[in-house]
Amino acid sequence: MNTQTQAGALAGIKVLDLSRILGGPLCGQILGDHGADVLKVEPPQGDDTRAWGPPFKDGVASYYFGLNRNKRIQFLDLSAAEGQQRVRELMGEADVVVENFKVGTMEKWGIGYEQVREQFPRLVWCRVTGFGADGPLGALPGYDAAVQAMAGLMSINGDADGDPLRVGLPVVDMVTGMNAVIGVLLALHERGRSGQGQLVDAALYDSGLSLLHPHAPNWFMSGKIPQRTGNAHPNIYPYDVIHTGGAPIFLAVGNDRQFRLLCDYIGQPAMADDARFATAGQRSVNRAVLKPLLEQAFTQRDGQELADALMAIGVPAAPVLNVEQALHHPHTVHREMVVKMGDYQGLGAPVKLSRTPASYRFAPLAEGKDFM
């Protein structure tokens, strides 16, 4: 695990992170993990997520710690003339600005994109919003769960006979932050050709809709409104939580070869030849018959042992772990997905580069008055 300062893929890129809450700060943290010099400007009272607990450490919530590594903090009141002037000075030093204020707020302060672009033509400006700046919902505030509801995600999440459910993590905010990173990198790459910066527009609403695979293509082709299927995949079976004699496992059988391997391993080879289950399409159609047959065959087997054995022969399967078990898993350690710096712990960078890996240089709450 690289906790030392080194030249990452984005070394030399200076990022002014004016964002708060989740999507923007996650974007800034990813850029920082890969070597960018990130200066985060917070209001005098700090980012709202400092209060989003418990748990807390020294009065700051874990939520904040999860999104603000590899940044140095400066406190400015952007509603005041002095703060606006200071931010404009910082923009002159920056390659990238990340912000997620309500549309019109920075313009009201005289430091919006269109107001500074002529002065700083190379600046890549990443704007994270709820719905974009225009259109029927343009400029309205956006929140993860509300967008999950509006983008159709809740309608296909949950048990078939249950209520629509929010995905149990802020998936729209997080994917928007990742899309913002993609946009920033695209704009920086293009700037190398043109010498010009541009506006990167990353909206929660767009990102929420982009997650509708395979439900959107299913609807485009069939015209049938997708329904909730619990843990089961709408197109593939067995791709579901299956009960065993011990802990449940998740099976993710995607093709006929894998299904035959499964049937042979559990001593039910005839099941792979049964016309109801012989092809992926038939298994999906006849899932209500297939699931209890599999669970009956699994009743005398331990879930963890069964999952391990199936994976070893090429059948995708996994035990259903809790968060603590997942973070302590030996492969989590091997993949360096838990970062430790002093008494700070966080999730590691999921993208590994062979020559310029991510590095962890500043734990959250590091203070800094300027770019380095």
How is this structure best summarized?
The protein is an alpha/beta fold and 372 residues long.
Keywords for this entry:
372 residues, alpha/beta, Rossmann fold, formyl-coa transferase, domain 3, 2 domains, 7-stranded parallel sheet, 3-stranded antiparallel sheet, 16 helices, 14 strands, 37% helix, 15% strand, elongated, transferase, EC 2.8.3.-
Identify the CATH architecture of the largest domain.
3-Layer(aba) Sandwich
| CATH class category name of the largest domain | Alpha Beta
**If strands are numbered along the chain, what order do they take across the biggest sheet?**
8-7-6-1-2-5-14
Mean pLDDT: 95
Beta-strand residue fraction: 5-15%
- How many H/I helical runs? 16
Biggest sheet architecture: 7 strands, parallel
**Low-pLDDT residue spans:** none
Kindly name the structural category. alpha/beta
The ordered H/E elements are EHEEEHEHEHHEHHEHHEEHHHHHEHHEEE
Shape: elongated
Portion in helices:
25-40%
CATH topology call of the largest domain: Rossmann fold
What would you give as the CATH superfamily of the largest domain? Crotonobetainyl-coa:carnitine coa-transferase, domain 1
How large, in whole angstroms, is the Cα Rg? 24 Å
Count the domains.
Answer: 2
Distance between the termini: 23 Å
Count of extended strands: 14
Organism: Diaphorobacter limosus
Pfam family, one: CoA_transf_3
GO molecular function: transferase activity
Protein name: CoA transferase
